[in-house]
Each structure stands twice: as C-alpha cells, then as structure tokens.
C-alpha cells in the first residue's frame, strides 16, 4: 500500500504522547464525521483519520510503523510482513477486539457508538476492584509443535512509551506449555502473568494467541493439513507405494494406479490431533523427467510410438 504519514494526517508531532494522539483523533473525527461535516471530502478524510489512529494508538503498531518509516525505500511501499506483530506484548484489548476501524466498508456512525462504549467501560473500571491489566501477545510456533506438544521458550517484548512518546523495550522470557493439538487462532491463558496491580490486587492475565510459522512443505486450514506431493509419471500411471513426510513423521502412501495430475488423496486422522483430528490432504503433482541425455530422449520417442494419445483431442471442433 502507499505510505501515509499518519502523524501528518492527525496533525501531531512524531513524539506525541498517547493522550495527544487520542485527543487529536477525537477532535478531527468529530470535525469530519460525514453526518455533521459540510466539507466535500469529509468521508475520505474521516477514513484517513481512522486509519492513522488505528496504527498510532497501539504502541506495537506505532513502533513497527516508526521503524518502517525511517527507511525511505520501505516507506514508499509500506507493507507490514505477515505476523509482524508476533512477539509483542501489549496491555488492554486485543487488536481485533472492540477497535473502531474507519476503513472501506466501515459505518461512520459506529464512531459515536464506540466512543460511548469506551466511556462507559472507563466509568465501570473506576468502580471495579483494583486489578492488574490483562496483556495479550501473538506467538509463533512450528506446526510440528502442535502435533507433539511440549514446553517452549517464548520471548516477548513490551514497548513502553513515556509522556514524550519515546519508546523503550522491556523483554522477558517465558516457559510455555504448548498443548498437543492446539490450532492457529486459539489462545493460551497464563494466569497472573499480565500487568501488575496498582495496589495489592491480583496481577492481570497474559493471553497468548497462537499462530504457525510458515512451513516449507505444509499449509494449514483449521485442523486439516495440505501437501503437494511430486510423483513420477510411471508412479501415477502404474501405482506405487512411496515414502511421504507428515508433521508427525514419515508414512507410506499408496498411489492408486491411473492417478491423474492434481488428484487429491485424503489421509484421515493425519491432520492436527484433537478429539476429532483433522485430515492430511495430498495433491499429486506429476513431474516430468528432463530429456537431458540420448537415452532419455529415446525413452520419450518410444512413449510417443507406444501411446495413441493426443492431449489436445478435446480442442478439435
């Protein structure tokens, strides 16, 4: 996406405090709200303001944005990498929980509803017992960790801003038990590992959202796992028993005779474990050997003579 100077959009300096950011957003959102503003491009400005605020109000997103914007080349084509927020610990609500997004398709009237909910929540919090704030973090694990389970060491970084908007980093390492069969998007709750209480109340909890590291072989949908398996033409045509990797170890796969390219085979129960385990879906990819020698070329000429086969017969007429 095209790089936008979010600080300029909100009319604030780069060292603005979190309170300055919120104050500027509310002032501009009221000014350019489409229901009340007479400015011709009010709705466009309102969406730009919402986009800027969605990034700068979060210390984690703001830190990543600030880092990217320092590099002119990166800034021209600012596209955060997948799971850029993994390993960051933050307090309060999760990124996707209750945040007003003024992007495409958003209803501008939601701004006032969200503002009311935020004020009501703040009033309720003032009358609730003093307790530590819950923290959230996204952590990346290997797909194999879900198959096996076990204990993993997780490093989290908590960005802390002072009143001037300068960031410092607090880092801590936790030993986390990964349950066998956990899926991407599920959460682990670590009781008492969140923010400390301002007084003698209990500490908050830490919620870890699980995501999988990109895998060179497998892709995942829910509990199902998918693999593209290269096979030779004769293995597909005649059938074969081949060794095949899975996240749980190597297995023997039977390829039925006469298998066509892109045929999908299902190994029931070989997906992510659980009360109802997923399946492992194997898509056959027929790979042609190169005609790199006279012997290989002779074999291809013999095939051409042996088969009455025209792959383009269906295109005639």
Please supply descriptive tags for the structure shown above:
Helix Hairpins, alpha+beta, 4-stranded mixed sheet, HSP40/DNAj peptide-binding domain, 317 residues, 9 helices, 29% helix
Can you describe this structure?
The two termini are 46 Å apart. The model is unreliable at 93-124 (pLDDT under 50). This protein has a 4-stranded mixed beta sheet. It has 9 helices and 12 strands. α2 (18-32) runs antiparallel to α3. It has helices at 6-10, 18-32, 42-56, 59-69, 72-76, 110-126, 143-148, 233-238, 294-306; strands at 89-91, 135-141, 150-161, 167-178, 187-190, 206-212, 218-221, 224-231, 240-246, 249-255, 264-267, 280-286.
- The CATH class name of the largest domain reads Mainly Beta
Radius of gyration equals 28 Å
| Span of the ends, CA to CA | 46 Å
Structural class: alpha+beta
**Multimeric status of the protein:** single chain
Largest sheet: 4 strands, mixed
Whole-number total of structural domains: 3
Strand line-up in the sheet with most strands:
1-2-6-5
pLDDT averaged residue by residue: 82
Q: Which stretches of 5+ consecutive residues score pLDDT under 50?
A: 93-124
* Annotated CATH homologous superfamily of the largest domain: Urease metallochaperone UreE, N-terminal domain
Tally of DSSP β-strands: 12
What share of the residues lie within helices? 25-40%
Anisotropy-based shape? elongated
The CATH architecture classification of the largest domain is Sandwich
Number of helices: 9
CATH topology annotation of the largest domain:
HSP40/DNAj peptide-binding domain
Summarize the helix and strand pattern as letters: HHHHHEHEHEEEEEEHEEEEH
Tell me the β content.
25-35%
